[in-house]
Amino acid sequence: MTQQPQHTKTKRYGMVIDLDKCTGCGACMVACYAENNVPFRQDESDKMRSLNWIRVMKVDNGKPFPDTQVCYIPMPCMQCDGQHMEGHSPCVSVCPAVATDYDQTTGIVSQIYTRCFGCRYCMAACPYHARKFNWWDPKWPADMEKYLNPDVSARMRGVVEKCSFCYHRYQKARDKAYVEGREELHEDEYQTACAQACPTNAIAFGDLHNPEHAVYSLSRSKTAFRLLERLNTNPKVYYLSSKSWVRRKADNYLEGENPEQIREKARKAAATH
Amino acid sequence: MTTPAIPEGVKRCPTRQFTLWLAVVGAVLLWGVYAMFLIWYKGLNQTGMNDAYGFALWIWADLAVIALGGGAFFTGFLTYIIGKKELKSIINYAVIIGFICYSSALLILALDIGQPLRGWFIFWHANVHSMLTEVAFCLSCYFAVLTIEFIPLVLENPKLDRIPFLHHLSHNLHEVMAVFAATGVFLSFFHQGSLGGVAGVLYGRPFAFREGLLIWPWTFFLFTWSAAAVGPCFTMLITWLTEKITQKKLVRPEAFQLLAKISGWMLLTYMIAKIADTWYWAAVTAPSKGFSLMDFYSNNPVYGIWILIAELVICGIVPALILITRKGRENKKLLVTAAILAVLGVCINRWVMVLQVMAAPLLPFHDWYMYMPTWQEVATTILPVAYGAILISLAHRYLPVFPHEKELNPGQ
Ligand code: SF4
Ligand code: SF4
């Protein structure tokens, strides 16, 4: 960025996931299911209709054994900032009923389940397949209902849902700070369930505008990149990897193009806005 | 004395034969209604769609049927605003076909949403930046206009026409039809365009994304242009089919010829614009996102480069060339072939802009997404065809749809 962002009241919550650390254990997915009352089916074999707010993708370098390398990429909603970093996210701009919106104070893309009427235009617009449709009404095994998180509403059939960066946790932390007469949240006061559950500390979460938060410097590190950066969606989920083949898997490049150069160019273009 | 419901001076098939026909088409309709009931009762899990394929067969059917229904607004524009008197022979039918297409589109939309009871949210919580909002508003308004255009014709049924109030109402509506035609053209320009914008604004989907003018991607203008070009071809095709089935001449040849000629030139200019758009997209837009043209047409079982050739050349340039030449237009077989090709071309275009967009992989570690509609989707997509056939049959039997039918079939 040409202009270093100041520690301002406007937050830009984001995530940095270190792919060199991720083992693909799926603890983030489990934590997310439990935290956000994400329903599941008795038979989950049809992954194209599975509900999950974060999913772990497996990629490899395409080389035969013994040169095979594998990398796991956890993918939540990227909380895109949009083409000109002003909240014109691919999904938000298309929703005809404003059932999904960009919160200018946190940068989080919301989803109002009772507003959504299930036209699925947002799903068509999201290049990360981060949005899921509720094909069925949710059902939990009888006793499990006691474990449901009272802070998160369950979603009905026929609406779209997605990762909210555990927004209810932000609300709770903000309420607490307000009662205590504070305006600012500490980094550890608001963390997503997946970041906390990750056993290898691969996921860091915080305010990308706040130099005191780990994500501030991590997102600016040399090995940081985002998925499909060339589409100008400007995700707030960054990845770290020291492996160039992993970084090349993050986007589409024509033959002869140098990913690092192109990424640098895209970042500069975004920063001028 | 009871007056017959059939317009005076024209011959219609025996009631028994007509009832039998209605029963056959009605059975297909009921099959669709059953599928519709299943979808509303059990939800969209009755379809073959999934999280990658949120837009599928229905959205295609919607886009296609609206493009084909474009004959109503464009013929209306030519008849009432430009003043092409020859088209009076076919305008009623164009309006009926448009009415069927648009009511079908609205029905499919009502099926295609996950929470049908909340359908009105699109008006109540309208997001003015969404192309779909524009579509919904213009589509509903235009459907109302089409209904108003259809009413005077219904009132001309001999039985209804006996009632003085209805007789006068119909007469007065006829007088002001140009106003409705103009409103229809205005609304159609925007909703056909916004339908094009639906895919064109998806900047996260390089296969669909198009640059454009102000807030409108090129596809906005291309959709309106193609609907105006191909809609009349569909009207001609259905008219030709009706003539074949009823074994009568229904429309004056001049009307056919004029419509074909205008369609041909519209189609040719559209194809020039479409090819320029495709070239710019393949040479500039897609590469800027890291894709080459062939990335979208290889490594999958269905979407080969043939689809582009079929759309642009076989179902675009070829019918346009047939229609702009007098010889091509005057040869009935060639004329019908050109109309069929043009209709197929616009259907392929809408298919590509919905289905192929969803199928193309975006991340290098994603594969092509394939999708198969379920019988419920197919049945509900055929449902409008059966509904259309019934409405056309009823209209043809009981309403004076073709003002020149008597004169064209003097023996009957
Ligand atoms: S990842 Fe998808 S759902 Fe999330 S903000 Fe971006 S476009 Fe919207
Ligand atoms: S599915 Fe819901 S959130 Fe998505 S665009 Fe439609 S109404 Fe908006």
Automatic annotation (TrEMBL), chain A:
Keywords: 4Fe-4S, Iron, Iron-sulfur, Metal-binding. The keyword Metal-binding applies. One of its GO terms (molecular function) is metal ion binding. Residues 13-43, 107-136 form the 4Fe-4S ferredoxin-type domain. InterPro entries: 4Fe4S_Fe-S-bd, 4Fe4S_Fe_S_CS, ET_IronSulfur_Cluster-Binding, LdpA_Fe-S-bd, Menaquinone_reductase_QrcC. The keyword Iron applies. PROSITE patterns: 4FE4S_FER_1, 4FE4S_FER_2. It comes from the Bacteria. Pfam families: Fer4_2 (PF12797), LdpA_Fe-S-bd (PF25160). NCBIfam families: mnquin_red_QrcC. This is Molybdopterin-containing oxidoreductase family iron-sulfur binding subunit. It comes from Desulfosalsimonas propionicica.
UniProtKB/TrEMBL annotation, chain B:
It holds the Pfam family NrfD. The keyword Transmembrane applies. The chain crosses the membrane at residues 20-41, 53-78, 90-111, 131-155, 176-203, 215-241, 262-282, 302-322, 334-358, 378-399. Keywords: Cell membrane, Membrane, Transmembrane, Transmembrane helix. GO terms for cellular component: plasma membrane. The keyword Membrane applies. It is found in: Cell membrane. Belongs to the NrfD family. This is Molybdopterin-containing oxidoreductase family membrane subunit.
